[in-house]
């Protein structure tokens, strides 16, 4: 089936919606420590959902993976582990810089590294982007994306945070920027893991899997790497905080840092965590579908992914009244930033279309 860039953009937007929405069910988890609901949801994100959907949507999954060179499997796991570090340090960035500035730095770096490094690594940067009119259009879309991220961040800064940073109890610009750079670079490793998994996609296609689904086996391997990093860290926290009993009903004490206080249902905690983890997986489920439609400009998929996360994340912020009482100028700026991001996806989609 030939690529369809417009359809690819739609799939990427669905993935961004999933990425921006996955944390919503966690808000209903009651009296579980972070490490408990994070690893519980993570089991569905990194193991259950990837293997389930790959097994029903692809042909001869185990045969494809057993035929994959060990070096390819190793690189996919390695980049998955590095990506896991990015996810773990993302929260520290929010702690030291605040949501608006922290998100702008991390996602901005993810966008740049995740979009530009794969073609540089593959040796196609000049031929694909510089010496190609459609590549020039894609580069323009990337620049508009970065501009949109900056505008959204500036809107967050004007939202109403005191100039003395009292709204961020642990504000530390130097430490925050350092952690944000680490998180942004590590998080972009997911794009590298997908690029390293190209032989798996080829084997899956040869086995008879349709173009939309050939990337699903790659997710099984890359996400296993993410599982390793997150499981080790959550295991350390569980041992340190003696929170293992929460898995079987020994709830954490009432604490404002917990997602929600109130009456607890162990079954509901597992249900909400499972739903959150599965939604999280769907961001990459749709990502691989979108990437399959982007032709030789598949590297721009990461830009579309990052932009759509910010778009839907901002909309969730409005839905939860996070911008209530914010100055009118800040509201206008955030809508302008979202508009730029939407426009950027159109530009990138058009660049891919004329480059088919």
Automatic annotation (TrEMBL):
It comes from the Bacteria. Coiled coil: none annotated. Keywords: Cell inner membrane, Cell membrane, Membrane, Sugar transport, Symport, Transmembrane, Transmembrane helix, Transport. The keyword Nucleotidyltransferase does not apply. InterPro entries: L-rhamnose-proton_sym_RhaT. The chain crosses the membrane at residues 6-24, 36-56, 62-85, 97-117, 137-157, 177-196, 216-239, 260-282, 302-320, 332-353. This is L-rhamnose/proton symporter RhaT. It comes from Brevundimonas staleyi.
